[in-house]
Amino acid sequence: MTLDRSWFTEPMESTGTAFSLKAEKVHEEQTPYQKIEIFKTETFGWLMTIDGCTMVSTRDNFLYHEMMSHPALNSHPNPKNVVIVGGGDCGTLREVLRHPEVASATQVEIDERVTRLAEQYFPELCEKNADPRATLFFGDGIQWMKDAKPGSIDLIIIDSTDPVGPAEGLFGKKFYLDCIKALGPDGMLVQQSESPLLHLGLIKEMHQAMREAGFVQTHLLHFPQVIYPSGWWSASIACKKAGPLASRLDEAAIAALDAQFYNADTHRAAFALPTYVRKALGA
Ligand code: SAM
């Protein structure tokens, strides 16, 4: 019996929905950027929230972290230099570094406290932080991208919070122009793009802004994500180059990733779009 425990609830006024977990708060702090809270849940392990929004839980983070990294990495012909914008819990960095073809992975997180708390409550996500290929940089991803050496990056992964507060500028044409400049000729960007059920308007706007910035093609992929609004999430890929995405789905290489959700079938399935989404994106 755990009736003494309370519930964490994330209400979404704009969609008339809410998500709850039975949980007790164990930590709360206001950083210069945002309010971070840690909860001990009854069935999902640890939960981190930022400004009241769910970010990462022990139980279901593998879905998001694997699908933010492996489909894009295996769609690029030769991803050597990877930059993660945001991603302070380090779970995406861990997945990226499972790929032997990646020579360097730089995580650019604005709020160092997210990473310090992840080290404490989600140590399994931080297990590759000491990999010699990893660099942890703490600063604003928008400025970092402005200053990046032109043509120096193969894949940019934007693992940010929702498009409000410090992440707002990561969702527009201005930022995508800086990304294009920083990317090499085969360069690609993948960005978390919210729920295909609740936020289709935002996804459309993102794809439009990516194309207006000069990316010649955009793709949506989708996957389950229990703790995010609607339980169904997406990522958007933008490519500098025309032509089909690479599909490096070698069974042995995928088995070596030791992933829990990702495999060749879930890779292909993630790019299969529902009819209404196809219509909305003109895909
Ligand atoms: N998986 C999560 C989601 O979709 O809700 C995102 C998790 S990750 C913890 C998001 C990170 O993006 C946060 O740690 C936040 O500090 C970081 N972030 C937000 N704006 C940023 C910016 N402008 N530059 C770098 N990092 C930023």
Automatic annotation (TrEMBL):
Binding, S-methyl-5'-thioadenosine: Q34, E109, D140, G141, P166
Signal peptide: none
Enzyme class label: transferase
Gene Ontology CC terms, in alphabetical order: cytosol
An annotated GO BP: spermidine biosynthetic process
Pfam families in the record: Spermine_synt_N, Spermine_synth
Function: Catalyzes the irreversible transfer of a propylamine group from the amino donor S-adenosylmethioninamine (decarboxy-AdoMet) to putrescine (1,4-diaminobutane) to yield spermidine.
Name of the protein in question: Polyamine aminopropyltransferase
Organism: Solimonas aquatica
